[in-house]
Amino acid sequence: MKLIKTKFKDLIIIQHSVFLDNRGSFKEVFKKEKLEALINKKIDFCQQNSVISNLNVLRGLHFQKEPYAQSKLVTVEKGEILDVAVDMRNDSLTYGKYFSYILSSENHESLFIPKGFAHGYLTLSKTAVINYLVDNYYNKSKEEGISFKDEFLNIDWGVEESKLIYSQKDKNFKNFNW
């Protein structure tokens, strides 16, 4: 497993080594001590979520307000997504900027997103199975979001808005007050 820093503090791409033989494959998805050493923080994942999404489904941009903020480790088990993380940390050099990256079952990569980011993704394949670990429990009353079409962020989703499939909740999120 190789950990790659991005220009966003503590936002890490994880490249997995895949071992194949006549039985199938094996890959190590997460190694706690290695990630903690790189970001110099403790990570204690407490919940794993699994989502199945169809082509052009856009989910996000979601985040949890304190004290329920969450770090996430996102892995695609099947298919392909455009994963987007928006830096909302006031003291960050990349505050108000977004990071987008294609994760797929073929590229064998994961994305670690620290607390302080809004997160969303667009399904690029016919279907995708996305698994993600979080280090804090979901709290409905602390859930917030940013409009996926926020004019300041101007995220390039790579798909015409008329083709996107999203929830009413995601549609109603407001632009972020930068």
Key phrases:
five-stranded antiparallel β-sheet, six-stranded antiparallel β-sheet, 2 helices
Please, could you describe this protein's structure?
This protein has 178 residues and is mainly β. It contains 2 helices and 13 strands, in the order E-E-E-E-H-E-E-E-E-E-E-E-E-E-H. The strands form 3 sheets. It has a 6-stranded antiparallel beta sheet with strand order 1-2-10-7-12-5, with helices on one face. Strand 1 and strand 2 (12-15) form a beta hairpin. It starts with a strand and ends in a 6-residue tail after the last helix. The model has no long low-confidence stretch (mean pLDDT 96).
List the helices and strands and how they pair.
Blueprint: E1 2-5, E2 12-15, E3 18-21, E4 24-27, H1 32-39, E5 47-54, E6 58-64, E7 72-78, E8 80-87, E9 98-104, E10 109-113, E11 117-123, E12 127-134, E13 143-145, H2 168-172
Antiparallel strand pairs: 1-2, 2-10, 3-4, 5-12, 6-11, 6-13, 7-10, 7-12, 8-9, 8-11
